[in-house]
Design goal:
The chain is α/β, with parallel strands linked by helices and about 270 residues long. It has 12 helices and 9 strands. It holds the Pfam family Trp_syntA.
């Protein structure tokens, strides 16, 4: 039986377009404010959302998401708040899969089986685990499978073809292709890097391949949608909330507007 995430990505493909996947960390700018912001992503047009579990050392995230994580952690966010965020968003938007994106250490400390059970109970669709090696993922994947959760792994341009095959064989839902985009003066080269990674990844799997890191406007979204199954956007949404400088309504309006712009981009 296909998962909710798989069905959503297949529906986008049936429409002849890429899916739009939006990311925001839980607890940013507050727990309640973060829930409203993630609601706004879906209202604006995101097909899937990723709820970040804030981490004290987010080594794979840029400065923008590090700033948001720091705000959330200083606000006292805990795993229970992340799960509450998932539960409220999933209940309000039953058609939109809600994933948690997290480093492995918090899951390990919380308890692998417990985290899988609690995430599923909250209505979560799965997890993105960027720093969990597939060789060490058996315990998680077993627990996730028992609760119908997808496990999304991350590949990078540096991943060799054999490694891509190992990673894609272990994952489900989609493959997260991390490839930086939108750096001034290097967009054409970086776009080629991302496109090559998608092509190499697709050669190893039937899973959708979704591209993240750096998309911030409809033009870039349309560019990535031309070769990927999904366009993942995080930092640009976080930046809109930071730019609102504490004005929650302005931040929500900005996030909703950006999601609508990007949703139009993936449909070009």
């Amino acid at each position: 039986m296909a998962s909710k995430l798989s069905e959503t990505l297949a529906a986008a493909r049936a429409e002849g377009r890429a899916a739009l996947i939006g990311y925001l960390p839980a607890g940013f700018p507050t727990v309640d404010g973060g829930i409203r912001a993630i609601d706004a992503l879906i209202e604006g047009g995101c097909d899937v959302v990723e709820v970040g579990l804030p981490h004290s050392d987010p080594v794979l995230d840029g400065a923008t998401i590090q700033t948001a994580d720091d705000i959330a952690l200083r606000g006292g966010v805990r795993i229970k708040d992340v799960l509450r965020t998932v539960a409220e968003v999933a209940a309000a938007h039953p058609s939109a899969p809600v994933l948690v994106m997290t480093y492995w250490n918090p899951v390990d400390r919380y308890g692998v089986a417990r985290f899988a059970a609690d995430l599923a109970a909250a209505g979560g669709a799965g997890c993105i685990l960027p720093d969990l090696p597939v060789e060490e993922s058996d315990e998680w994947r077993k627990a996730a499978g028992e609760h119908g959760l997808d496990t999304v792994f991350v590949v990078a341009p540096s991943s060799k073809d054999q490694r891509l095959a190992e990673v894609t064989a272990a994952g489900s839902g989609f493959v997260y292709a991390a490839a930086v985009m939108g750096v001034t003066g290097t967009r054409a080269a970086v776009g080629n890097l991302a496109e090559d990674l998608v092509a190499r990844t697709r050669a190893t799997t039937d899973l959708p391949v979704c591209v993240g890191l750096g998309v911030s406007n409809a033009t870039q979204a349309a560019e990535v949608a031309g070769f990927a199954d999904g366009v993942i956007v995080g930092s640009a949404f976080v930046q809109r909330i930071l730019d609102a400088d504490g004005d929650e309504e302005a931040g929500l309006a900005a996030v909703r507007a950006l999601a609508a712009d990007l949703a139009a981009g993936v449909r070009r």
